[in-house]
Amino acid sequence: MEGGADALPARVSLKVAPGASKESVDGWLGETLKVRVVAPPERGKANAAAEKIVALALGISPDDVSIISGHHSARKTIEIQGLSVGQIRSRTDVSTWT
Questions:
Q1: 23-62, pLDDT tens digit by residue?
Q2: pTM: predicted TM-score of the whole model, two decimal places
Q3: Model confidence over 66-95: pLDDT tens digits?
Q4: Which domain holds residue 38?
Q5: 1-25 b/e with 16+ CB inside 10 Å = b?
Q6: What is the CATH number of the domain that holds 17?
Q7: Following DSSP, what letter does each residue of 15-64 receive, concatenated?
Q8: What is the dihedral of CA 33, 54, 10, 88, to 10 degrees?
Q9: Among 12, 18, 21, 43, whose Cα sits 20 to 30 Å from the Cα of 70?
């Protein structure tokens, strides 16, 4: 099933490492997408940065990425509008980036 504006949101497991020296999408470990953010884990700063970097990697608006669980944990579940899980995995496969 292809994603689109009327598609159900895709849910993805996310592991966020806050306080990193640089922001990056580090690829997949099994079913979990790993990201690093510079922002500290306080007052939602790391969560907002994680949503933004995932959106940037996917080429979509940050408004289309939402953390739905794990707000106070490194392990989160995010919902992404307009893309299928397959499209998300393809766009975040760091082994294909140049």
A1: 999 999 999 999 999 999 999 999 999 999 999 999 999 9
A2: 0.88
A3: 999 999 999 999 999 999 999 999 999 877
A4: 10-96
A5: eebeeeeebbebbbbbebebeebbb
A6: 3.30.1200.10
A7: EEE-S-SS-EEEEEETTEEEEE-SS-SSTTHHHHHHHHHHHHHHTS-GGG
A8: -70
A9: 21
